Amino acid sequence: MVTVNPDGKIMVRRCLVTLRPFRLFVLGIGFFSLCFLMTSLGGQFSARRPGDSPFTIRTEVLGGPESRGVLRRMSDLLELMVKRMDMLARLGNSSEPHRAAGDTHFAVDRFPPGASLMERIQAIAQNVSDIAVKVDQILRHSLLLHSKVSEGRRDQCEAPSDPKFPDCLGKVEWMRARWTSDPCYAFFGVDGTECSFLVYLSEVEWFCPPLPWRNRTATQTALKPLPKVQAVFRSNLSHLLELMGSGKESLIFMKKRAKRLTAQWAVAAQRLSQKLGAVQRDQKQILVHIGFLTEESGDVFSPRVLKGGPLGEMVQWADILAALYVLGHGLRITVSLKELQSNLGVPPGRGNCPLTVPLPFDLVYTDYHGLQQMKQHMGLSFKKYRCRIRVIDTFGTEPAYNHEEYATLHGYRTNWGYWNLNPKQFMTMFPHTPDNSFMGFVSEELNETEKQLVRGGKASNMAVVYGKEASIWKVSGKEKFLGILNKYMEIHGTVYYESQRPPEVPAFVKNHGLLPQPEFQQLLRKAKLFIGFGFPYEGPAPLEAIANGCVFLQSRFSPPHSSLNHEFFRGKPTSREVFSQHPYAENFIGKPHVWTVDYNNSDEFEAAIKAIMKTQVDPYLPYEYTCEGMLERIHAYIQHQDFCAAPGPAPPGTRALQSPFVLAPNATHLEWAQNASVAPGAWPPAHSLRAWLAAAGRACTDACLDHGLICEPSFFPFLNSQDAFQKLQVPCDSTESEMNHLYPAFAQPGRECFLQKEPLLFSCAGSSTKYHRLCPCRDFRKGQVALCRDCL
Q1: What pTM was computed for the model?
Q2: Tens digit of each residue's pLDDT (9 = 90 or more) over 520-576
Q3: CA 360 to CA 343: how far, in whole Å?
Q4: Would strands 285-289 and 330-334 be described as parallel, antiparallel, or unpaired?
Q5: Exposed/middle/buried for 600, CB within 10 Å: 0-12, 13-18, 19+?
Q6: Could you tell me if 312 and 468 are in contact, meaning their C-beta atoms sit under 8 angstroms apart?
Q7: Would you call the peptide bond into 684 cis, given omega within 30 degrees of 0 as the criterion?
Q8: DSSP code of 315?
Q9: Residue 324, CA atoms < 13 Å, CB-side half-sphere
Q10: Residue 383 in contact with residue 419, Cβ under 8 Å?
Q11: Which among 429, 364, 422 is positioned nearest to 393, based on CA atoms?
Q12: How far apart are alpha carbons 690 and 671 in whole angstroms?
């Protein structure tokens, strides 16, 4: 029995109280001592996975049962130390004069009654030191064992000379010199030995053959695909609003838009569901990464949302998110690089290694900023999975700019191109070129009651100017044409300002300041005219104005604006010439809703104003910009576009057993023969193909439009043969295959026929006076140029 007098009790308690601040100090000594030992031994502990204990040793690195023994012995020693610290803590925290027998025995044995506080601390520190020495001995022994194992397998870890893996030797050499350049290699078990190089290059990457002595069970066991779930249309967007997050003005704007259009999305989903009937739709797992909103890309949009900045991109992204969600697919939304890395399974490091797991998403929607971020952090996995990516690309990317080698050799290289994707993976805001997929957005659609109210509430002499930023009003010559307009109409503006009226806005203009979207819609419903100053290009506002019963007046550009003569288009991956501020409105809608005139011609401008005032127009919205039209289009893309499938058509010059083409009765073009077999997997269906030989200097885009059709680049491979030229009775004295975005084509002077050598360069865009281009065309659904009549 241990007895103490009352004074002794007081002294012990004081000592214990005094000892409390030292407990964390002592425990910290032990913890950091172990961490120091581990980190000082290099790569064996640098390969920890997220979630591993700081004391976990990767058995793949140390190898076999030996490493597990080391792990057990280290764990036992660490547990002993922690238990002793815990005993001391309980001794100090207890105010009872007696302890349990076991605890008392331990305390009395380890710390005699006469021991001072300093002696106790010294004893604990010595214990920690002893443990550290033992850990060091164990690890050194483990390293020695590992070295012996490596020596025993040296003959099995030589880089093989296998013709099936021609890059293996070079990759091993690179790993010897650079494996420490990125921590991701250590994460996957690389430790500087030949065996670890070959294991990595054969099992994580695919440059070397598998090692015969490796246990392949784990690496060959593929993840079982999840059972297919049918997509079901959704009408409630509450969960989508949660997925979108918050914290940025851009996200707040997008959420407000989605919420405001909820009822229209619900009606559209019901209509499309009825139209599709019993069509089976597999639910896709989709990652949406909005790269331009990440801090790493600068996020220049969010701070300008409340200052009149451009909203077109955010309008489109809000509608894409809503459409994907309403169609019933699984969504994950990211607006930061950290979220992107987490969802992709990016290993720690600098982005040189593949993903840690197979990509868990069927599709990834992003933009050019997000595309760059994915390439930077996915390593080799980017090449493997890039066929699943869809790039939201406002102004489009033409094939000549997309093909890296061709763009570099022929002067088409820009900051935004050269990704070597299928051009259809780029998805645009308007149908600029059929080489890309038309994604679009939606405008609010008026019901019949609202249309009646608009018709009765229009002011015949009210105009609204398209331009929320004061910089747009700096256009030269505006005083002249605005002065003419002011003679006939009351002019309204919605220009952002903080305290003082922007000096760029003339005094006769009634400026409302920046309006919330519902109030802006009400202003458009009263106005007769919506007038543009030539910028911004191709935004959503003109379609919103036309949908609210306005006439849109815009400037004709002469010469047309392009990357050759206008700073805004310089560097963009397109050679497209823009003849007006909004080419879609001019070409696909036109009069009486859209008037395009020369603002420098005062007589033409004034005559247009007079004619517009006499013209009565109803609210109009093209079907492809309704909620139903966008749902229909995205459904078709998800259902039918597969850029991961192996290429189908034969290489250029290959002659089929039976030609699928016949010359049309009027001998002007080719058609798909009725008795020809249907091309397997072709979408759009090949039977909608019509092929024309364009006039010299005419692009296929324009040649097809001349016949009321749309150019379809996916049909080019069917025409890329001598047979197509022969059926069109084109006299080819010679036929060659080359890389050129204008091929297949016929050169008149030398009677030469040219076939396309590189499938990624098939292009509807582009022309040359030297060539008659062979152009594949197709029909299209009314109000939906992206889809052929049988594409659903």
Answers
A1: 0.80
A2: 999 999 999 999 999 999 999 999 999 999 999 999 999 999 999 999 999 999 999
A3: 8
A4: parallel
A5: middle
A6: no
A7: yes
A8: H
A9: 28
A10: no
A11: 429
A12: 5
Pairing of strands 745-747, 752-756: antiparallel
CB 208 within 8 A of CB 165: yes
In angstroms, rounded to a whole number, what is the distance separating the alpha carbons of residues 746 and 358? Answer: 46
CB atoms within 10 A of CB 462: 17
Determine the residue type at 740.
Answer: N
Q: Specify the amino acid at residue 445.
A: E
Torsions phi, psi for 371 (to 5 deg): -60, -45
Question: Which residues, 6 or more positions from 500, have their beta carbon under 8 angstroms from its beta carbon?
Answer: none
Tokens 């310089």 — which residue? 570
Closest of 642, 732, 652, 645 to residue 693, by C-alpha: 732
- Give residue for tokens 């064996």: 44
What span, in angstroms and rounded, lies between the C-alpha atoms of 765 and 734?
25
User: Residue 573 in contact with residue 411, Cβ under 8 Å?
Assistant: no
Q: Are 725 and 745 in contact (CB under 8 A)?
A: no
Give the position of tokens 């054969």.
Answer: 202
Q: What is the pLDDT of residues 26-63, one digit of tens each?
A: 445 444 444 443 433 433 333 333 333 333 333 333 33
Helix (H) or strand (E) holding 694: none
- The DSSP 8-state label assigned to residue 578 in this structure reads E
Task: Give me 767's structure tokens.
Answer: 């022309």
Q: In this structure, is the dihedral angle defined by the CA atoms of residues 142, 146, 147 and 152, taken in order, positive or negative?
A: positive
Quick one: 225 exposed, middle or buried, by C-beta within 10 A (0-12, 13-18, 19+)?
A: exposed
